[in-house]
Amino acid sequence: MIYIVGIAGSPRVNGNTEILLSEALKVAAMDGARTELIRLAGKEIKPCDACFSCGETGECRIKDDFQGIFEKMVKADGIILASPVYFGSATPQIKALIDRAALVSRARGDVFENKVGGPLVVARRAGQNFTLAQLLFFFLQQGMIIPSSTYWNIAFGTERGDVMKDEEGLRTTKDFAKKMVWLIKRIKGLE
Description:
With 191 residues, the protein is of the alpha/beta class. The protein contains six helices and five strands, in the order βαβααβαβαβα. It has helices at 16-30, 54-57, 66-75, 92-107, 128-141, 167-188, and strands at 3-8, 34-39, 78-84, 116-123, 154-156. A five-stranded parallel β-sheet has the order 2-1-3-4-5, with helices on both faces. Helix 1 (16-30) packs across helix 6 (167-188). The longest helix has 22 residues, at 167-188. It is globular, with a radius of gyration of 16 Å. The protein starts with a strand and ends with a helix.
């Protein structure tokens, strides 16, 4: 069975980002994936301080909630990173996670290479393209395979639950999740 982790980078529990990510994970589960939603809300993930000690040890020296999340990312066949737009970019929580994950992955011999992954972004009004690019760059820099969809993986909403009114955003998200499962199955020879 394939395993997909979805990481909600919003500091809000049950907000639009988590709602959109949950929709993607539901579709993935219906297509046969085991899924897990990881909330960064309430977790402590400090920013990378560029000490580069992970290059020698394969571990991040900063002790917080990063390590457990990183290990789930390593075990996963697919990774979805979801973030709301905060002042035109991804949240500090998800940025800290991907900055540290990228360095530790490299230190361990590129553990994310050839995994499947992709972003989801929720915007109120603007900033979505830059945020999408920030998250995409993580997947590209790590040598991961990014499934497409029918449009960019973006949905709009302001108040909690508004993303459920964005029909195109929901359809794009669900198509992305289906493509992710299909691609992982192909890569693993399960289809």
